[in-house]
Amino acid sequence: MDDEQRIDLGMSLFIPYRYMEDRIFRALQDAGFDDWTLAQCRVFQRVAAEGSRLTDLADQAQMSKQSAGVLVDQLERLGYVRRVPDPVDGRARLIVIEQRGRRAVEVVGATLGEILSEWEAYLGTRNFALLQQILEQLREIADPYAR
Known about the structure:
Layout: H1 9-30, H2 38-44, H3 54-61, H4 65-78, E1 81-85, E2 93-97, H5 99-123, H6 125-142
Antiparallel strand pairs: 1-2
Helix pairs in contact: 1-5, 2-4, 3-4, 5-6
């Protein structure tokens, strides 16, 4: 590939992510979860298994608390999440995934597994493992939400 055909590293990282996101969103739609938007899904994917506070979702989605709140309101009306009292701080509320949301998460998991298997078959087990290792290492310095 000559220099004119090369794309920068950022775009090289973004293209596979966007492919994965598009394919998962289509799989959700095909499975009957066709009543939400990609923006709502992007907030939904950040809800932790134990629940999340709205401010954390907004920070992680890089949007205002008000915008995240509107999307969570919509997700709640659609039955994907609900707000519950935070057991640690009674003044706060947690957004938790409801049964409909858990069913959507199952579709996401199955589709993600398919994609990763295809990528591993294409790249080979060694290169795929190396790719995962390198990206996990970069996450240490690039992701403020890495645990």
